[in-house]
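Progress report, Aim 2. The chain analyzed during this reporting quarter is listed below.
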Amino acid sequence: MSVLNKMLRDLEHRQQHLSTDNDRAVPGVAVDDGRPLWLNLLLVLSFILLCFAVYAILSRSVTASKQTATSVAQHAALTAADSPVKAAADKADIAADNTAAQVPQRVADAPQPAVIAAMPADTVPPDINEDRPSAPAMLPGDRALAQPNRGDSHVADEPPLTDSRSAEVPAQPAKPAARAVTIERAGLTVAQQAEVLMQQALAAEQSGELQQALQRWQQVQALTPTQSRPYLAQARIWQLLGQTAQSVQVLQQALAQRIVDADIQLLLAQQAAARQQWQQVTDLLPEQFELAQQVEYYGLKATALQQLGQPQAALNWFAQLVRLQPEQARWWLGAALAYDALQQRQQARLHFQQALQRGDSLSPASRHYIQQRLAATE
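Predicted structure tokens for the chain:
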């Protein structure tokens, strides 16, 4: 009996020892006597992995939330920076709509800004663009109503309306088309403006509009006062219009500008010759140009010297002209008259004959005079 009790105590002691060892191996986990140890370890490892997975998911969620919060903050800052301008624009639109709903029409004669070329006022003639009128440019925010005046008395008593948008929002740029025209006009130099006006003057002169051509040449003269071409063109047009005094006045203006031009001086000398003012002709034709380039210039000078009773001086020029242009009968005739005045009959007769042989361009009166002189010197 005592042996049996001792065996039971030993068995109970072993069970308690095994229970104590299991409690030490896995603390806080109750060990089921019916499950093996490896299964318990597998469950514990699975639980640990599950905890790590949950932690990773929660960390990603927190990072995404922080990034979203940062983007929202940046967007809110940008929106806050733009909100004053947008609010002002919205306020201006609402004010403009209310004004259009309350007032039936804008004042018709309200001043409107116009696009003006950025050229100096002293270089551009006032009527340079008179052939191309353009309507004043409208502001982008202008909403003037194109309705007829209904005779409302309160509209006439109200002060001119001001555009609220122009007071709150910076002025918008002009329309692209108007800006392109402004840049084009502002980019023209004085020489380019003068060239445009000269082309217009020549076109008007060809079409028979002499007054318009004269006006364009006057504008060219204002832009280029030291150029001879506008003076010569005006003098020619005045002569076509029968205004000789105006032609002389224009040419004298060129001389006052100290313009040295053989054509200007020749025109003045021809008009003086038409008045039989031979001394003035010689004064207007000084020896400052090449003979080969100004044949008519020195031909008139030789004629004036002959009319003033200076045959030797005239003969010097006529002899040079004969050598330069032997086909011209008038130079032979001038030299013959100079020899005749100098009492050199043989040379005079020879030159009269040469003039008669080339006399297709001579007038009948000149041919008749030559025949008389030839008969007298036989």
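The two ends are 204 Å apart (CA to CA). Residues 25-32, 103-170, 174-184 have pLDDT under 50 and may be disordered. These observations will guide the mutagenesis work planned for the next reporting period.
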